[in-house]
Amino acid sequence: MAVRRRERSTLGRGEMFWGYLFIAAPLLGFVIFAAMPLVGSLFVSLTEWNLVTEPEFIGLENWSEALSLTTVYLEPEIDAETGEQIYRCGRENVIESRIGEFAGQVDVRGNPITCAARTVRASDVLPSGYQTWFDINLFGRQYVVGARDPIFWISLFNTAFLLLGVPISMALALLVAIVLNQKLAGSRLFRTIYYIPTILPIAALALIWMWIFNPDYGLLNYFFRSLGLIELGTTNWLQNAATVKPALIIMGVWRGMGYQMIIYLAGLQGVSRTLYEAAEIDGAGWWHKFRYVTWPGLTPTTFFLLITGLIGAFQTFIEPDIMTDGGPYFASTTTVMLIWQNGFRDLQMGYAATQAWILGAIIMALTILNFVLARRWVFYD
After folding, report:
1. Are residue 83 and residue 122 in the same domain, yes or no?
2. How many structural domains are present in the chain?
3. How much is the pLDDT for 4?
4. Could you tell me which of 296, 267, 265, 274 has the C-alpha nearest to residue 380?
5. Are 172 and 137 members of one domain?
């Protein structure tokens, strides 16, 4: 008995040795290329480092710079002589008692003159070192939200806005996958066509879409002009703060839909045919079969695409960097773009590491939240 135990112990140690040997390479790679840089970047975020001189430890100053926010109320501007509130009517500043003089008047362009209450300047009431991020009117009171680094918060908003493309792309990919999952002539050809954008270089795709969005001879404006929509047909899509983010979303949806379609096709083929047959016997129509058979079977696939899509969208960099350079007026600057600029253009590596950690924390929190909520809507066999 003792001999058999020694043999099993020797065999177990041998298997353990070979097991650890086989995982040594990827484990060592993870430690060297992932874990150690991760810990190192946390230390760098506590320093001021320009990649040339020695890092200078500054504690949480970078974190305070990035995360500091404040909200202040902009009080109405009062005339020192009369004590009345000052209003802006057209190009003229007037006291409240004179507003009636501008009733029914028009400006040089023929537009009616309107009067708006003036407030104190934000720069006069914001704390030292803070700049305006955005202002908002609540219940007739004007407030301004300030930040020590408003560009960082603008980049976070832009990145969050681009996340809207993830559910849009997934919905379209699911629709196309359902159609191409049918026994239709040429379905394999269409699968290939839809998947091609996924394997093309991002830089080449960016240049193609810059041509499509061109305000003078781009295909999109030509299409709108051919429909008689002249106003839309003259839009400068990539240099207009109101349209640049939707334009990037359109490109992102077109580029990512093929990959998501292939994954959905694999998920559709994994749904048991017997469930469809049982639903047909019970008299279920196409909608009920989709709702009670197809969709539950695709929830694991949808969950996977949602997680990977959100993480990928948070890391958007190449497309806006090539197409807009973050403009106009930072309207398309993403957080990863800002991290790269701070780290490798401005040589503020400590501050860039701080922003990277903040972005990583947001991605991690959102991923954990999705895993928690997945228990309510993801169904496994």
Report:
1. yes
2. 2
3. 53
4. 296
5. no
pLDDT at 11: 60
In angstroms, the CA 216 to CA 47 distance is 48
Give the residue from 65, 236, 269 showing the smallest Cα distance to 147.
65
Residue span of the structural domain in which 136 resides: 71-149
Radius of gyration, CA atoms only, the chain: 29
Asked if 239 and 121 sit in the same domain, the reply is no
Whether 227 and 327 map to the same domain: the answer is: yes
Domain boundary at 92, 114, 149, which? 149
- The answer to the question of residue 22 being in a domain is no
pTM here? 0.88
Torsion of CA 273, 275, 279, 285, to 10 degrees: -60
CA pair distance 276, 328, nearest whole angstrom: 51
Question: H-helix or E-strand containing 184?
Answer: none
- Asked if 288 and 215 sit in the same domain, the reply is yes
> How far apart are the C-alpha atoms of 244 and 238, rounded to whole Å?
5
Q: How far is CA 261 from CA 118, 219, 265, 294, 303, in A?
A: 53, 25, 6, 15, 14
Environment class of 48 (CB within 10 Å of its CB; exposed 0-12, middle 13-18, buried 19+):
middle
Res 321: pLDDT: 94
What are the DSSP calls for 39-98, one per residue? HHHHHHTTEE--SSS--EE-TTHHHHHHH-EEEEE-PBPB-TTT-PBEEEETTEEEEGGG
Average pLDDT of adjacent 10-residue blocks, the chain of 381 residues: 55 76 86 89 94 92 96 91 88 87 81 87 91 89 94 97 96 94 84 90 92 90 86 88 95 94 93 89 89 93 96 94 93 96 94 96 96 92 68
Host H or E run for residue 142: strand 141-147
Q: Provide CB contacts within 8 A for 101, sequence distance 6+.
A: 94
Q: How far is Cα 181 from Cα 329, in angstroms, rounded to an integer?
A: 45
Residues 210 and 88 in one domain: no
By three-state DSSP, how is residue 235 classified? coil
